[in-house]
Write a structure and sequence with these properties.
Helices cover 75% and strands 0% of the residues. The chain is elongated, with a radius of gyration of 23 Å. It has 157 residues and is mainly alpha-helical.
């Protein structure tokens, strides 16, 4: 799938979807009077199905994550030599910084709204649970992300 820079799917996943597309085409090809040759219909069905699946799995978070990993200068040898304890300590420090940020934050809705946002809870559900408007939700999320970016950003560089 050359249209996508980097996707969170393995080759086997796409192969499974290709077989699903082939099976769906077999069911439809004879019942509908399709004028294309069967081989071309298979190629079209598989490419469209795989493209749809890739598009479904690509969202902004994956694009940002994959682009940053693909463009990073860190080689796998360096990553393998770093002990796992380093990651645990580093993640713990970041987690503590985030917790302190939310404890000192004047808006007490910021933490639960942000956590639900990270858990991909539908926005309408967040609106109704906290009885907030779409604009207030957007302001909370934007402010929180910008603040956390300025706090944690220097540690990630």
């Amino acid at each position: 799938m050359s249209k996508f820079h980097s996707i969170p799917l393995e080759h086997q996943d796409l192969l499974s979807y290709a077989w699903i597309a082939f099976d769906e085409l077999l069911k439809v090809y004879q019942t509908k009077n399709i004028k294309k040759k069967f081989v071309w219909s298979v190629i079209d069905a598989v490419s469209w199905k795989c493209t749809d699946v890739c598009a479904k799995y690509i969202n902004n978070r994956h694009k940002i994550l994959n682009m940053s990993l693909a463009n990073s200068n860190i080689s796998l040898e360096i990553l393998e030599n770093i002990p796992a304890e380093t990651y645990k300590e580093f993640n713990y420090v970041i987690f503590e910084m985030v917790e302190i940020y939310f404890k000192k934050h004047k808006n007490k809705l910021a933490k639960p709204v942000f956590e639900m946002y990270l858990d991909n809870v539908p926005k309408k559900q967040i609106f109704t649970k906290f009885n907030i408007s779409r604009n207030k939700f957007k302001k909370i999320i934007d402010d929180t992300i910008n603040d956390l970016r300025t706090i944690i950003g220097p540690f990630l560089d």
